[in-house]
Write a structure and sequence with these properties.
This protein is of the alpha+beta class. It is built from 28 helices and 24 strands.
Length: 767
């Protein structure tokens, strides 16, 4: 959507992208290379033909403008029954509204929407998408309004055009670009075809970027690299992604691009090992009576560059891969069996993305085989349908919102209104992937454009996704019994490297503030535990609504949704960072408590009579500090925090000293009741021991024998044959604490048991 682009058909001019670039763009490999790729070819000749026709205006022939002839031919190849009348009317409106506007190359501006439409037609987009692509710049750059588009072409086309229309820089200033992408992503959440049009639009502008100033080329290329290429990957549109990567490569890394291009062209036209292996594969499959098409699929420049960096040297076999196309899923495995029987397979290279598809709809069998000479050929095996989806991604799905009865979806129930609905009222959307749902969720809570822009780039940088199986959530009732409170089992998609903290916020949103622990594959784990693909997760939630996250949780998050939610909570509860936070907030660095995020969640929160405490602030809610978990008969003192709450610490807690040093006024606090006995309290204990087998089991048994219940536990990695266990325990009677600590000290290997809050200095002195 740039009126400044140049001749549609010229690749990026590397001479303008950098002083050392090659003298031609990545499109120069020629038609034969495109055919060998096995991907829909985005024809430059078609673009030139469109440009010439556009100069002549919309003169119709047999009811179809000359400029649309090539688009119509390509479109009919994918959709034989397509109604071209709508396309003709859309072209007429676009041509008349853009008349007089010129690109920097001097060509009529209408060549740009025509070229974008041809790109989408080559990928098999349906008529509604092509109609919107012809009109995608009219509202932004001409006097045409959205109301006019809606009246003439329906709400569905209007929604798509609005989705890709930029926000005015005069209204948004520097925030115009991030806010435009935010608007576009929200629109994509309702209709993924919005992003399809944007990707095709950016591809044509990248192809014609040569007349721009070098600094503007660089800026556009970086945004394309950081945002649009990852989005193309996530939507599975590999044909666009690969070409965008090469165009960005030529601009941002001209020297490496020139070297890679010279390497590829140096092997072009020469017979290589892949030709020999491909011919033998055809023979093997013919003898096995398997109907298959065997192609050589050249790697694009960026892929060759990555291979060269990984292997140091590139051979002819590294410049491409074999692509085997068959009719049925079962034939894929038949081909795999024949290849592994007649060639030597490279076992480490086998991946089955048919049984377990990628999160972007991609399906294929990946393997690598070696011939008698030792040449290795990486091989992709897929059906023709899988190949269309692998190349065009969501575009290959046509209109995913069209009703099953074939009725017009452009009314209130379709397109802009969210598409057809299922019986339960949920929109039927096969293209609503988990990553997009998560992105839409956290962007709503990010009003600041800079934060949104940074978070978006970080989120899109996560290029792998894992699936975690989630059991029913539950909470600890204070007696050590986990009570189920959240029904439902299922799966959640997360970026690779995500922790239990990320999973909690992906599942429960703001409710994850009350998470106090997790079981991963049936075993107790800290919330900092990094999850792996296929893990089973069971989250434990605190029944106390005052529970909150620890500042340490931020060190273990990969998703913006979790990071932003935690940051908002901490900003609203500043006392949490000083060890004053409510249960579950964990102890900050330096408070003496060495719990990890999963071992937090320990102390009780009490108010009034239930705490057995009275303070010098009548009517204040009393909260026991999570950093030192005071119990009778500890000497205690309190500090007032926001919300009329008094947080009570043990008098020896390091946080008390820091608060006093900072000028905070203490609030007097004392235990109440006969003999200072309080029924039901929590305490955090640190057990220092020499490492040995079964130590955890023996300590847990000793704790249970004293009638205490384990709320949370964490074991630090052994250091110099010593290990530290952190337990948050629920005691039925605070008076039993001394006997509990004695029992734990009597466990073989344990040399000390300490209360949290003074452990740090003691242990530091010993070590």
């Amino acid at each position: 959507m740039s009126a400044e682009a140049t001749n549609p058909g010229n690749p990026v001019a590397p001479a303008q992208a950098g002083p050392s670039a090659a003298q031609a763009g990545p499109s120069d490999l020629g038609e034969a290379s495109h055919r060998r790729r096995g991907r829909p070819r985005l024809e430059l000749r078609g673009l030139r033909r469109i440009g010439r026709a556009a100069l002549l205006g919309p003169a119709p022939r047999d009811g179809l403008p000359d400029a649309l002839e090539h688009v119509a031919k390509v479109h009919r190849a994918h959709h034989p029954d397509a109604d071209l009348d709508t396309l003709s009317r859309a072209y007429a409106l676009a041509e008349s509204s853009h008349r007089g506007q010129m690109r920097k190359s001097g060509e009529p501006y209408i060549t740009h929407p025509l070229a974008v439409t041809l790109i989408l037609a080559e990928l098999g987009a349906e008529t509604t998408t092509l109609t919107a692509s012809l009109l995608h710049d009219t509202v932004e750059d001409t006097e045409v309004t959205l109301d006019q588009v809606s009246r003439e072409f329906g709400k569905e086309v209007c929604y798509l055009v609005d989705g890709v229309t930029k926000l005015e820089k005069v209204d948004y200033g520097a925030a115009a670009e991030p806010e435009t992408f935010r608007k576009m992503l929200v629109a994509t959440g309702n209709d993924v075809r919005v992003m399809s049009i944007k990707l095709a639009d950016r591809l044509h502008n990248m192809r014609t970027l040569g007349v721009m100033r070098p600094e503007k080329q660089t800026r556009i290329a970086k945004v394309t690299r950081d945002v649009l290429i990852p989005l193309a990957e996530r939507l599975g549109v590999q044909a666009l992604k690969s070409e965008l990567e090469d165009l960005v490569f030529a601009i941002l890394h001209p020297e490496e691009y020139a070297t890679t291009r010279a390497l590829v062209l140096g092997h072009a036209g020469r017979p290589g090992p892949l030709d020999t292996i491909a011919e033998r594969v055809r023979t093997v499959l013919d003898e096995a009576d398997i109907d298959a098409e065997v192609l050589i699929r050249p790697r694009h420049f960026v892929s060759v560059h990555r291979v060269r960096l990984a292997r140091g040297a590139v051979t002819g076999a590294d410049l491409g891969r074999l692509l085997v196309l068959v009719a049925e899923d079962a034939d894929c495995y038949a081909v795999l069996g024949e290849l592994h029987t007649c060639f030597t397979p490279v076992v480490s290279e086998f991946k089955d993305f048919i049984a377990v598809p990628k999160f972007n709809l991609y399906q294929s069998l990946h393997t690598a085989v070696s011939d008698e000479d030792g040449a290795i050929a990486e091989t992709l095996i897929r059906t023709h349908r899988m190949h269309r989806v692998a190349e065009a991604g969501v575009i290959a799905l046509g209109n995913p919102y069209a009703p099953a009865d074939g009725s017009d979806p452009s009314g209130a129930a379709g397109g802009a209104a969210g598409g057809p609905s299922a019986e339960d009222g949920e929109r039927v959307d096969p293209t609503q992937p988990g990553w997009l749902c998560r992105l839409l969720e956290w962007q709503r809570a990010t009003p600041d454009p800079d934060t949104f822009w940074t978070s978006l780039r970080d989120d899109l940088a996560q290029d792998r996704e894992i699936t975690v199986f989630c059991a029913e959530g539950g909470f600890d009732d204070g007696s050590g019994t986990v009570v189920t409170d959240r029904a439902g089992t299922g799966t959640v998609g997360l970026p690779a490297g995500a922790s239990c903290v990320d999973a909690a916020y992906a599942l429960y949103g703001e409710g994850a503030h009350h998470c106090i622990g997790a079981r991963v594959n049936g075993r107790l784990a800290t919330l900092s535990t990094v999850l792996c693909d296929g893990d089973s997760l069971h989250l434990l939630m605190a029944p106390d609504s005052a529970a909150g996250p620890s500042p340490d949780w931020l060190d273990h998050t990969r998703t913006p949704a979790a990071r932003l939610a935690i940051s908002r909570w901490l900003a609203a509860h500043p006392g949490a960072e000083a060890g004053e936070g409510p249960v579950g907030a964990g102890a900050p660095s330096g408070t003496g408590e060495t719990r990890g995020p999963g071992a937090a969640a320990a102390s009780g929160r009490h108010g009034g009579d239930t705490a057995g405490l009275s303070t010098d602030l009548p009517g204040a809610t009393v909260r026991l500090a999570g950093c030192c978990t005071p119990v009778p008969p500890d000497h205690v003192t309190g500090f007032a925090v926001r919300g009329g709450i008094v947080t009570v610490h043990r008098a020896l807690c390091p946080v008390v000293a820091r608060m006093a040093a900072s000028g905070r006024q203490p609030v007097g606090a004392r235990w109440r009741g006969a003999g200072n006995r309080v029924q039901g309290c929590r305490v955090t204990l640190l057990a220092e021991a020499f490492t040995r087998p079964h130590l955890l089991a023996d300590l847990t048994e000793a704790i249970a024998a004293e009638g205490a219940a384990v709320v949370a536990a964490a074991v630090e990695p052994p250091r110099e044959q010593r290990v530290r266990h952190t337990y948050t325990l629920h005691l039925p009677d605070a008076a039993k604490l001394p006997s509990l600590m004695r029992a734990m000290r009597q466990v073989p290997g344990v040399f000390d048991v300490l209360r949290a809050g003074r452990a740090q200095s003691t242990v530091a002195a010993r070590s």
